[in-house]
Amino acid sequence: MKAWNKSVLISLLCTLFHYYAFAVYAFSAVILSPIFFHTENFQLTRILGLATFAITLLLKPVGSIIFGHIGDTYGRKLSLSCTLGAITLATTCIGVIPPYDYIGSASGVLLIFCLVIQGLCMGGQYTSAIVFVQEHTSEKHAAFACGLIGSVGVLGTLFGTSISFLFYHRGSLGWEWRVPFLGSAIMGLSLVYAMRYIQETPIFIEGKNISRHQTLPFQDIVKNYKKALCAAIFISSIPVSMFYLATVYLPNFFESDNWISNPLALSCLAQILCMFLIPFLGYFADKFGKEALLKTTSFLLILTPVFMFYATKTLNSEALVIIGIIFFCILSSLYAGPAPAYLSQKFPAIGRCSGMGLGISLGEGVIGGLSPLVCIILEQVFHSKAVTGYYVMVLGVLSFLAILFSNKITSVPSKTDMTEQEICT
């Protein structure tokens, strides 16, 4: 196997593991929350579980700054290695935390500490992997390459959710729930060993050798690429917001009177659909244009969600809820491949991890990660399920404006950018 193929394969496996490690708690947070927290109100306990899930995503911007600096200064490989080791440790530790009944509130505190580490690692890993794989791939396949990273991430999420589903889908929360967390130690350590075979991207090596930056890469990005950062925040918020609405909000909180399905089963359905759609639509974007596909999807976000939520609540059918889940999966997949490939061209090679990391993690972590919680709060305030549709419409408007805004972005010229084109092709 060629060295660069081996590097990409290991990077994809690391991405799969990161999302597995994230998913074993994230998509089971509502179910597992009574183990770590105790309240008299069961609904409040579920919301606490969802809030801890949001903590992981809210910390992604901080992680993107830390590991983005490592990736831009010392290399993409080192950034991936650091996040891999840390998330392996954090996920394994969740599996050994005593329950609330044994140590009281300390159980929740320890859980939050582990989730903080997970959040920091997720903020650095995704962007580092996106940049790493893309810099090993020609520009004409950029959206497909980014879509492949997204698809592998969903596969890891599906794997983690499915494993959790097998161990406590009958409602029993004995010791078995710990197995998916403890199993991460074996997978993570195996990948830590495999990282010795990964090679740095040629674009980083060339760019580092000729870069004119005298400041920190992150400082240069914030100073010279403010417009690109703003565009990245709103554009990247869409795929994750739609994904979490399909996998967290609709299965767990959009209940009908005749609700009979297991939420984890519906989450798995959504993840399987996204896993196949993301690389396919990324390939489609490479053929017909990334920007055109992003604009078209933004129009769909603006025009259709409110009607869907009105119909779902009025007809009170589980089948319509499943259709809603499929609809959001399609919207997420339409953005997941072309968006990072489109945004990557707005940043220089040295500084790309920092710029992409901060913009994407703010969009995904703050807007995307909070989307299920925001929708729940809006429901309580306005006493209507349809208000979620208006929230999606607002996201669509912001995204469309960001795409138009990004067309006016002109990159700061540098030798790094000129060299990058030669290496990619």
Number of domains: 1
Major sheet: none
Distance between the termini: 21 Å
Supply the CATH architecture.
Up-down Bundle
Q: Strand-and-helix sequence, N→C?
A: HHHHHHHHHHHHHHHHHHHH
Tally the helices: what do you get?
20
Would you identify the regions where 5 or more consecutive residues have pLDDT less than 50? 411-425
Q: Which class do the helix and strand fractions yield? A: mainly alpha
The CATH homologous superfamily is termed: MFS general substrate transporter like domains
Reading off the top of the CATH hierarchy, the class is best stated as Mainly Alpha
- As for the CATH topology, it is Growth Hormone, Chain: A
Number of strands: 0
Radius of gyration, CA atoms, in whole angstroms: 21 Å
How does the overall form come out from the CA principal axes?
globular
Indicate the percent of residues in helices.
over 70%
In percent terms, what proportion of residues is strand?
under 5%
* Average pLDDT level: 80
